[in-house]
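User: I'm new to structure prediction. If I give you an amino acid sequence, what do you actually give back? Let's try with this one:
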Amino acid sequence: SSSSSSSSSATPYTETLKYQAREKCWRPTVQDVERISWGKPAQKKGTGSRGVPHRLNQEERLLFDQARRNGFLQVAGSGWRAERRDAPLLNSYRSLCDARGQVCIVLHKGNTGVDQLVVDLSPLRMPETFEQLENDLIKFVELVPSYKSSEDEPFTKVKADLETTDVEVTDSGDIEEKSDAWESRPIYQLPAHCISWDIERSEGKALGKNLAKEFNTAEINISKSKKPLHVKPGKSRRHGGYGIG
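Assistant: Good question. You get back a string of structure tokens that encode the predicted 3D arrangement of the chain. For your 245 residues, that looks like this:
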């Protein structure tokens, strides 16, 4: 960016990224994230919501499992699907990252030859550290970001989600300042804090892999997710399938 000095931009950022995840706070369990991704009720109240779909179809399930192994999710376009008004795959992966207390790294594959790599810091639930980590991350990546939350009044979508979940929020700034919200609310009621880069596919995958290693987000020995007992696939995706907690 224009504010960085020539001396700092000439020096590669060789330190490991320093970050913290909030420990004493509400988080879903990984098991419950898996359960609602199959459309089963969660054991912990608040994991899912009628207004925020998490149930995955077969294709999304493969991408979800792959993301767990690789440490970052790869989706076509923005991950939004025409038949649902929200993106279950993005919701489920962000919830998984929340359960594990890790950043959420997503490579959105465009059809123009340029992809978008997005890092969402919100699952760390440490809003007081986001801006510093954002700056360190930009130095680490050594590319000018196409978007960063600190420069924007972001998350119209999140505000819309909040409205559908009967939570009164005036804007994302209000939530940023209320640390109790970060301690007690489910992730789908909290604003994302994103940094994104426009990047070529091969470079995007390499950077995703590098960041996954840096943030330790890959679950190397994870097996294919197993369907819980007594789950029947829904005949229609138009109704239900939201995964309720």
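You can read the tokens as a compact description of the fold. Here is one thing that stands out. The beta strands are 73-76, 104-109, 114-120, 147-148, 194-200.
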